[in-house]
């Protein structure tokens, strides 16, 4: 598969930067012939992954850094959201719908569930005390249509 284009961006782990992340990724992938649904799903997934990094990975410590990488492939978009925060002690538990480590913040615990539902693949690599990497892939509708 030929890589078509890529970008990466790093920013402080501040909640207000979640909107920046959404806009940056949306602007980058807007060069593609994607549906509005695909665009909205990707923006939502970026919001969820970045929010997890900021709130859970760094406990909202603005000295933390969140990195996003996006690769446009021939038939898909690959997204990576990374932090060097606290890591996830139990990934399987964290991926359960409605599970949250921050109920006092009125978190819904649906971040990973949303990511799984909107993307074609989701991989979480984490080391406690070192950070978390979330890898997401979305096959694009035009590519799916070509195979049918």
Question: Could you explain the architecture of this structure?
Answer:
Residues 37-142 form the Histidine kinase/HSP90-like ATPase domain. Keywords: ATP-binding, Kinase, Nucleotide-binding, Serine/threonine-protein kinase, Sporulation, Transferase. By secondary structure, the protein is of the alpha+beta class. It has a single domain, classed as Heat Shock Protein 90, CATH 3.30.565. It is built from 5 helices and 5 strands. It has helices spanning 17-29, 36-57, 91-94, 111-118, 141-147; strands at 3-12, 65-73, 76-83, 121-127, 131-139. It has a 5-stranded antiparallel sheet with strand order 1-2-3-5-4. 28% of the residues are buried. The mean pLDDT is 86.
> In which range does the helix fraction lie?
25-40%
From the 3D structure, determine the CATH topology: Heat Shock Protein 90
The end-to-end distance, rounded to whole angstroms, is: 19 Å
Q: Outline the biggest β-sheet.
A: 5 strands, antiparallel
The ordered string of helix (H) and strand (E) elements is: EHHEEHHEEH
- Average pLDDT confidence is 86
Give descriptors for this structure.
5 strands, sporulation, Anti-sigma F factor, nucleotide-binding, 29% strand, Heat Shock Protein 90, alpha+beta, 148 residues
Q: Summed up, what is this model?
A:
With 148 residues, the protein is of the alpha+beta class. It contains 5 helices and 5 strands. Helices cover 36% and strands 29% of the residues.
Protein topology:
Layout: E1 3-12, H1 17-29, H2 36-57, E2 65-73, E3 76-83, H3 91-94, H4 111-118, E4 121-127, E5 131-139, H5 141-147
Antiparallel strand pairs: 1-2, 2-3, 3-5, 4-5
Organism: Brevibacillus brevis (strain 47 / JCM 6285 / NBRC 100599)
Family: Belongs to the anti-sigma-factor family.
EC number: 2.7.11.1
């Amino acid at each position: 598969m030929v890589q078509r284009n890529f970008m990466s961006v790093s920013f402080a782990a501040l909640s207000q930067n979640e909107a920046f992340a959404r806009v940056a990724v949306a602007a980058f992938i807007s060069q593609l012939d994607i549906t509005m649904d695909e665009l909205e799903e990707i923006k939502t997934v970026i919001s969820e992954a970045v929010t997890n990094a900021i709130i859970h990975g760094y406990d909202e410590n603005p000295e933390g850094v969140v990195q996003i990488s996006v690769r446009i492939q021939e038939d898909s978009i690959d997204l990576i959201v990374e932090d060097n925060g606290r890591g996830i002690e139990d990934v399987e538990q964290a991926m359960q719908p409605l599970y949250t480590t921050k109920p006092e913040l009125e978190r819904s615990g649906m971040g990973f569930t949303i990511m799984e539902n909107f993307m074609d693949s989701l991989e979480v690599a984490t080391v406690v005390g070192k950070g978390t990497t979330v890898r997401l892939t979305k096959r694009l509708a035009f590519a799916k249509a070509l195979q049918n």
